[in-house]
Prior knowledge:
Keywords: Amino-acid transport, Cell inner membrane, Cell membrane, Membrane, Transmembrane, Transmembrane helix, Transport. 74% of the residues lie in helices and 0% in strands.
Amino acid sequence: MAALNSPRTSRPAPSLTGGASIIASVCIGAGMLGLPSSGAGAWTLWSALALILTMVVMTLSGWMLLEAFKHYDLRASFNTVTKSMLGARINVFSNLTVYFVGGILLYAYITSSGLIIQSMTGVDSKLASVVFVLLFSLVVWHSTRAVDRLSVVLVTFMFLSFVLGVSGLASRIDLGILFNTIDPGGRYAPYALAMLPVALTSFGYHHSVASLRAYYGEERKAQKAILGGTLVALLFYLAWLVSIFGNLPRADFGPVVAQGGDVDVLLAALGFAIDSERVATIISAFSSAAILSSFVGVGLGTFDFMADLLGFTNDRKGRTKTWVITFLPPLLLSLLSPFGFVLAIGYAGAAAAVWACIIPALLARKSRMLEGGKTGFMAPGGKAAIALVLVFGVLTILFHFMGLAGLLPEAELGAV
């Protein structure tokens, strides 16, 4: 986590554009690859509404973390504030969910990378996953600077390939497919419930809030940067969904969802639907870069979190121990029990709801009970906003497990 020596320094004030870009780049990644499959039942309008609602709630929850952090030094971390305000037991549970989210996301990226490499080269997917982890986790092990340099290249490539891919898809959008006019009486709304865990994961930037506050030296600029970043991410997601849903008919998502929403299956289905090898190649390249970018980004965040939590040193021996606990469990799980990309992202969303919704709401509530809690920066919306964020988090977890139990229409997607 970045920190400043004091709230006021002589350096030029950081730009809001830079902060918003940090938040947007943290949000936008491989998570968006799960959105088309998870939103296939809800289709265009209801998927868009689910994303807009999630963006509003996740923006509010980030602001609530800022509100809680105002009582502490700029060096204070999520771990420090949660332990101080909510107690050691809740903090332990919160930390477990942070590690689980990092691990399950790495697991999803490792599994999907193996499948994509297999489809491109014919190499066994498990061997491909091992090589992928050994090669790119070493970048994380080496240094944050190495991750920074790789991320700049990947983000630039992702942006260019996204623009080219979406423009290629947009030129082929069929409004009849986009709004599924072949089935005007179809049921859509119930499917949006199963989409929420994946949507929540796609706006998961909360581990960066403390760093952003330290970056600006105060809360209000960080608040604006968070809003700017989540708005940019929302626009990217809406453009992506409209482009996909305008080309690949709703009924064609059945086989994709039946195979767990794996990225390679979605790309294959999309390739057949758009009948353009160039666009299909660009989208495939974007997807590969998104998975790699997310892998090193989430890997670095989890790596640093575990090193700080367990007190591992920053020398070769300490970083190697941190590497083992960060990357080995998800790799072994991927090799022993691979399953669908969307299902894995859904698990991450359910766990992330704890520390990205429930914990921030509880922290904001506690903050307002402290001396000086109702002065300085406060998240807007009062008690109603706290209730909204808290209920959204609880319902997201509930909907995830209802989906697993077959109590939501998600299980019927093969027949849409």
